[in-house]
DNA sequence: TATGAATGAGCATTCATTCAT
DNA sequence: TATGAATGAATGCTCATTCAT
């Protein structure tokens, strides 16, 4: 237990708090203004700390952003860990519904992360993009392995184009998340979101699974 | 006679060429490096022109980028105009196949535009984003009106969630375009791309149209 | 006769007109915006001529400004030539009244010259100032020689500090001209200006001439 | 306690020194080269500080210049405050001699301020001029109120043109200051300057006061 | 650890000037 | 002569980063 803390042995709890505080604040501002328009001074002013303080914890602006990406990734993995145990042996469509809903709720619970991953991520710049892609890849791998398992269990067509199907699911999921969560417009109620998630899942099920599992 | 000249004194053919030359070059570099990492000097060096020359044609870097977006939009509309006549009275699924294929080939013919629209567009910054969104909206409106027409002609379910369905199609299309065209990886052959387009269209047809029109 | 023209033998009448046109326009704009804030393009746009045209007549911006100064100087000398004949043997105070009034009316007839000489002149920059000073010196020399003549004719105190008295007269004259003519405020009517000129002259007479010549 | 600090967190004594140091240096260079010919890099090189340092204290070049004007104005007011107490109930001519001498010595003690106010001030540019005029107006108001008081005490003619008389005094004073102090020529000795001040005052007294107060 | 004054590489932009037509 | 597209030296300013305290 207390695994989190033991990863970074040299950091005192206080220092770790400060680091998280900066990360938390940076997430909000990066999500709002993007990487390039965000200035270190924005973060520093927001937190009422010294201009040099972030540099105690992060090499530079890029490393700060990368740490942020990393922490979002970490959150996602934590989120998954706490869910996966239960999901196991449901009916195929139910399994998908649950998984899909999981992703959506993760983003809904942390729209700033959604904005950073879905809006700024692609095309940000050559040195940062790989790190964003890495997370993206993680999502994609999960989808892909789900599909493979589906084929294995004979609930998905053997000859389906796995890579393509993965992209269809991923594209739909990210667009839905982007449109209903990460845009700067009015936020959707959880109720309405659940409806949308359900409907979307039904559509995707139709193109993923063999007819008898719809 | 000589009407052209008297309308627009400063836009001689030569000056128009230079403007397009800058725009063309800017597209390639913006597509490769993004808005912020692209420097005017990159464009200027590439073209072997003076550092001040782009400023003869564009107010500033942002206006240059916006003009670029505008010219991509223009290209798209030209592209559509030249196609629309033929598309009219096909079977529903065929109609969709053709439309979908159209979008994909537009991007395939101009991958830099695809990169700019699909990668850098979302989340670039507050003052530019609206212009990117405007084009996005254009795509979305076309999809939406296609769906409405489908409902009207009774080939799509009356109670379908139009907004959601639009997002599913748009999300799928942009992801496919992004993945197979706009990423910085190896480019796909036209043959392979056509296969992918076809397969994707089949999937989407399943969730768009009533079963009898698949 | 036709002295003016013969000075510059190579210039055709047309070319001379164009040069004067540029000079005239430059005067107005320099008077309004000052040397540094005036751009060649301002002049060129105002005249609807090509951007390169002023460079047919003037080496560069500075030489254009210097030519302008020179032409103002020329105007002043022309103005003097046309007056001096009459002024000769009046009573001392009358002589001064007439001279003082002359300067003031010169500026009143050409307020732009007044602005350039009185406002921008001093302190403009190291390379231009000497040329402005040269004109200033011309005014000062005239004042000084008037004083010397007055001493000679025994109408001014022998032991007066000529340099200082010159400065007092010059300082008063330029301030009055500046205040009532060259500021950007409402312009004074000729009637009111004449009143002011008269009153000022009476004051100065008191400190210039021996009491019996007031 | 520690009140000072809590009022103005960013203005530590050290930072205030640096600001004054920049202001002081800027005064010398602006006085020498004028607003437009002075480059930030001139100041920065002179002080051996970083190119960005002035921007810690001033928004931009114009704001730096304006702050300088403001600080000259402040100096003048401080100078006045320390003198005014004594001046009160002298004979009219003595009062004027003292006042006039005061202005002259202020400029003599700080010729750079004189240069900036008297040479560059008028006509510098539309956005700066008002701030220079404001100080000029302050001088003018003092002269004017002196005249009004003189009329009240019956030592100046009732029907004198106050505005005009003010301009004559101001024009004379600024010309004398300009000629003997602010030109780039040899500087005058204090002894000689005092002589000039005295003589000038005598001249002005003749046109300001009724004869019995000369 | 925390601070914030100082730094300077880096960039967008300007504008007088040139020169081929 | 007149033009105006092209030029590029020059400059103001920004902002991530450093480091003495």
Describe the fold and architecture.
- Four copies of one chain form a homotetramer.
- The first copy, chain A, has helices at 3-6, 13-37, 40-47, 54-57, 61-87, 92-109, 111-120, 129-152, 162-182, 190-208.
- Chain A is mainly alpha-helical and 214 residues long.
- Chain A has one domain (3-213): Tetracycline Repressor, domain 2, CATH 1.10.357.
- In chain A, helix 2 (13-37) crosses helix 5 (61-87).
- The longest helix of chain A has 27 residues, at 61-87.
- In chain A, 32% of the residues are buried.
- The model of chain A is unreliable at 1-9 (pLDDT under 50).
- The C-D interface holds C 33-37, 115, 118-120, 122-126, 161, 164-165, 167-168, 170-176, 178-179, 196, 199-200, 203-204, 206-207 and D 33-37, 115, 118-126, 161, 164-165, 167-168, 170-176, 178-179, 196, 199-200, 203-204, 206-207.
- The structure holds a DNA duplex (21 and 21 nucleotides).
Report the portion of residues of chain A in β strands. Answer: under 5%
Listing every helix as H and every strand as E from the N terminus to the C terminus, the arrangement of chain A reads: HHHHHHHHHH
CATH superfamily of chain A: Tetracycline Repressor, domain 2
End-to-end Cα distance of chain A, whole Å, is 41 Å
Most extensive contact: C-D, 35 and 36 residues
Topology, please?
4 copies of one chain form a homotetramer.
Chain A: H1 3-6, H2 13-37, H3 40-47, H4 54-57, H5 61-87, H6 92-109, H7 111-120, H8 129-152, H9 162-182, H10 190-208
Chain B binds a DNA duplex (21 and 21 nucleotides) through residues 10, 12, 14-15, 18, 39-41, 49-53, 55-56, 60-61.
């Amino acid at each position: 237990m207390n695994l989190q803390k033991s990863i970074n042995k040299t950091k005192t709890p206080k220092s770790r708090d400060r680091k998280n505080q900066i990360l938390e604040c940076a997430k909000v501002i990066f999500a709002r203004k993007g990487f390039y328009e965000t200035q270190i001074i924005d973060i520093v002013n927001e937190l009422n700390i010294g201009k040099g303080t972030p540099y105690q914890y992060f090499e530079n602006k890029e490393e700060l952003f990368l740490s942020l990406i990393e922490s979002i990734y970490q959150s996602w993995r934590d989120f998954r860990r706490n869910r996966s145990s239960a999901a196991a042996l449901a009916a195929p469509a139910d399994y998908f519904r649950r998984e899909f809903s999981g992703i959506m709720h993760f983003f809904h619970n942390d729209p700033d992360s959604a904005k950073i991953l879905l809006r700024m991520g692609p095309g940000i710049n050559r040195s940062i993009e790989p790190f964003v892609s890495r997370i993206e890849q993680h999502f994609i791998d999960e989808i892909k392995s789900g599909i493979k398992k589906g084929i294995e269990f004979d609930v998905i067509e053997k000859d389906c184009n796995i890579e393509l199907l993965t992209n269809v699911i991923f594209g739909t999921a990210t667009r839905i998340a982007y449109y209903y969560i990460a845009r700067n417009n009015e936020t959707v109620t959880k109720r309405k979101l659940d409806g949308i998630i359900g409907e979307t899942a039904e559509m995707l099920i139709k193109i993923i699974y063999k007819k008898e599992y719809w």
